[in-house]
Amino acid sequence: MGGRIMPSISYSDALNDALERMKDLGYERGQGVDLANHGPMGAEALALLGHEDEVSRWVERYRRAMEHHEPPAARFPLDPADESSWRPALGAFDRAGDWEALFTRELAGAHWREVLVRWWPRLLPGLFAGLTHGLIRTAHAVRGLYAAERPTPLQLDELARGLAYWAARFTELPGRPRLTGTYGLAGAIAALPRVPHDGPLTPEVPRQRLARLAELPGYGEALESLAPDGADRLLSEMTLRFADVYLAHPEVFPVPLIHGVTAPAAARLVLPHLPPELHEPTLAALWQVHTTFLLAFTTDRRAEGTDAWRAEAQAAPALPELAARAVEHGDEHVIKFTEACLREHALRPDPRYPAAAFAAQRRVSRLDAGGAIGVAGRR
After folding, report:
1. Number of alpha carbons in the 13 Å side-chain half-sphere of residue 23
2. How far, in whole angstroms, is CA 143 from its chain's centroid?
3. Pick from 173, 210, 152, 167: which is nearest to 27 by CA?
4. 183: burial class by Cβ within 10 Å (0-12, 13-18, 19+)?
5. What distances in angstroms separate CA 24 from CA 129, 228, 288, 337, 370, one per listed residue?
6. Residues 125-180 pLDDT 10s
7. 68 - beta bridge partners?
8. Can you tell me the distance from the alpha carbon of 223 to that of 244, in angstroms, rounded to the nearest whole number?
9. By the 8 A CB rule, do 126 and 132 touch?
10. What pLDDT, on the 0 to 100 scale, is given for residue 149?
């Protein structure tokens, strides 16, 4: 691949065009399954990678890849000032339209940062929502708003939908995470016992483990094992150590462990807009999610914490080429993961970031020109 021509449109123009093209899509997609709508997130990451001219074409490919559900209709209004009105609707996906209407009203009456600060602690206990896609979609929307000189209605609507998806798929994990331990992140990961499994790791195994998460060895102890640290340092540790985890587990379905990196990378986009007192609870909630990923999707440590990743790092192309390959690959998780790894690598250079992005590009099925998506890429 040769040198890339500078884009003819801006990041904000590409983003708003994509949001316009996708405003008729529902929150989820798939026949017989409920998979998160990744379109707005993928388009924003693609534009951020500097491939703004590719965004509209990618959106059309993405729309053809799988049928989306209809956008939800609002039915019964939620009162943000009355906890007895909105709290019972957390995790009720049939109230997604009501949540969207609530956040649309909130954003019409206050600055988006004010709305974010008000709702972040309310939604944080349900961070696992949609395999963390509530958080991630919200964070991509926040980055677009922060970059805009004057936010557009499309961008405010996208933040409303990110928050609404988080609220409607709100998933509270058992136990209360707190950063009161003595382990650094690498030690906390190494100390977590894994549960072996007899037979192949079918999609049913993680579902079974999630259903009995509180009973799994080490889960409760892990929630208080991690020592406190500064937000920037701990977020970098999280993305780096889970890039390492991703590299160490080629036997696991190729998509779920990606979120071990993209979730904390997404939180990094939002924390500057939140008061400091919300930082540590966010980090603790992320560690609970990481613990859940490790227990649900891995059965041993494999090559975690070793230098087995070096072969992948040596094979990885230069960083601009890595970004271009993600664009060509087309899968929305690959695009988001590559963007997150390159962004985290710029903050704390480490070859495991590009190695993990390159591994995902080879493990996840491509979005082909006809819009088909392989079984390995389902999520």
Report:
1. 14
2. 14
3. 167
4. middle
5. 22, 43, 34, 25, 21
6. 999 999 999 999 999 999 999 999 899 999 999 999 999 999 999 999 999 999 99
7. 29
8. 21
9. no
10. 85
| Cα–Cα distance list, 139 to 36, 49, 120 (Å) | 15, 16, 11
What letters, b where the CB count within 10 A reaches 16 and e where it falls short, cover 68-95?
A: bbeebeeeeebebeeeeebeebbeebeb
Amino acid identity at 308: A
Pair of tokens at residue 63:
């729309």
Please tell me the distance from the alpha carbon of residue 217 to that of residue 195, in angstroms, as a whole number: 8
Identify residue 365 by its one-letter amino acid code. Answer: S
- Inter-residue contact 317 to 329 (CB < 8 Å): no
Per the listing, tokens 């798929």 go with 169
pLDDT computed for residue 201 by the predictor = 78
The answer on pLDDT for 373 being more than 60 is: no
Query: 312-320 long-range CB contacts below 8 Å, 24 or more apart?
Result: 312/247, 312/355, 312/356, 312/358, 312/359, 313/351, 313/352, 313/354, 313/355, 315/358, 316/351, 316/354, 316/355, 316/357, 316/358, 317/358, 319/345, 319/354, 320/4
Q: Say if residues 222 and 192 touch (Cβ distance below 8 Å).
A: yes
| Strands 28-29 and 35-36, bridge-based pairing | antiparallel
- Three-class secondary structure of residue 373 per DSSP: strand
Alpha helices, H only, 66-193: 83-86, 96-109, 112-123, 129-147, 153-168, 185-191
CA 184 to each of CA 224, 299, 311: distance values in angstroms, whole numbers, following the listed order: 12, 22, 26
Whole-angstrom Cα distance, residue 100 to residue 229?
35
Burial code of 145-176, b = ≥16 C-beta within 10 A, e = fewer?
Answer: bebeeebbebbbbbbbbbbbbbbbbbbebebe
Global pTM reads: 0.94
Checking if the pLDDT of 369 tops 70, the result is no
